[in-house]
Every structure is written in structure tokens, then in C-alpha cells.
Write a structure and sequence with these properties.
about 170 residues, six-stranded mixed sheet
Length: about 170
């Protein structure tokens, strides 16, 4: 199984004046545009996804919707889960992933530092590796074992600028 671990794109800042709470922060127009181009880079790489699981926070849901649109996915193939919200449990997320029998590729859209810790736990068995995903960045993790926990290897990690360059290169 391939897991595509995606950090949400650029979002509105927190602030008292603008009432952007952690849960309601939406993508900025620039964030939406850059994520659309990054998703085109995923398409240029030949990435296909059977299912997108996303944090329920607005900026992650909007990122998932952009990716789904570019990859030609249907709305029912995007599901919100509290197991990708900030502070969530990797154990519960692993359980949710394991229940997806027959699914060959899943995109997980969420937040740092949890996503970096998730990748670290899968590839090393602990959260001790410092894996940073930039906003709009994507990592591909090849999961080779699901019992008793997810284990696998990091196939690649691309910054959003690299994904956008791939998209531009595929248009030539």
C-alpha cells in the first residue's frame, strides 16, 4: 500500500481581529493556487489515489478537495477523520487505515508535527526522526507490513516547489 502524506497548503493566519480560529482557518487564494499546481505535479508523477482521509480542520479539508479535483476523484472518495486532527493518535489512525481492505493507495491530509511523526513511526518504529513537510509538501510511504502496526519505507518526499516544477515540466 502507498500512503501519500500531504501537509495542508498555505492558510489564513490565526488572529483576534480576523476571527480565524484554528478550526476555521481556510486556505488563502495563493495557497489554493499553489496546491492545485503541486497536485498537478503528483498527476505528472503518475500518482493515483483510491481514497483521501483528511483532518476535519478547514484548511486540510480544502487541501484534500483541491487534490481530489486535480486527480479526478469523486466527492465520496474524500473522508474526514478526527484521527488526522492535531494531537490525534497514530494508533487509531493505523487502525482506520488497516480497515481499508483492498485499497492500494491512500492520501492522508493533515498537519505538522503529527504528519512528520507519523512518517517517522512507520519507517523507524518511533517518532524520533525529524521529518519536516512544508505546507503543500507530499511524502510517499510504501507500507509493507500492517500487523501489528504499519511498517514501511520512505519512497520520496517532495517540497511544493518541486511538485510545481514537475507540473510545469509535464506541460512542455
Amino acid at each position: 500500500m502507498d500512503l501519500y502524506v500531504i501537509r495542508h497548503a498555505i492558510a489564513q493566519p490565526l488572529g483576534r481581529k480576523n476571527d480565524f480560529t484554528e478550526e476555521k482557518r481556510a486556505l488563502t487564494p495563493e495557497g489554493r493556487d499553489r496546491m492545485r499546481e503541486a497536485a498537478k505535479g503528483l498527476r505528472a508523477l503518475g500518482v493515483t489515489v483510491d481514497l483521501i482521509l483528511t483532518s476535519p480542520l478547514a484548511r486540510a479539508v480544502q487541501t484534500a478537495e483541491v487534490v481530489a479535483g486535480v486527480l479526478g476523484m469523486k466527492e465520496k472518495e474524500v473522508e474526514r477523520t478526527n484521527n488526522l486532527a492535531p494531537g490525534s493518535s497514530h494508533v487509531k489512525l493505523f487502525g482506520e487505515i488497516k480497515k481499508r481492505n483492498g485499497v492500494e493507495s491512500i492520501a492522508l491530509v493533515g498537519h505538522q508535527p503529527e504528519l512528520g511523526q507519523l512518517i517517522s513511526r512507520i519507517i523507524s518504529g518511533s517518532v524520533d526522526l525529524s521529518i519536516q513537510l512544508k505546507k503543500g509538501g507530499v511524502a510517499c510511504v510504501n507500507v509493507t507490513e500492517t500487523v501489528p502496526v504499519l511498517r514501511g519505507s520512505l519512497a520520496w518526499l517532495l517540497a511544493p516547489a518541486q511538485l510545481r516544477a514537475l507540473a510545469r515540466g509535464s506541460q512542455s
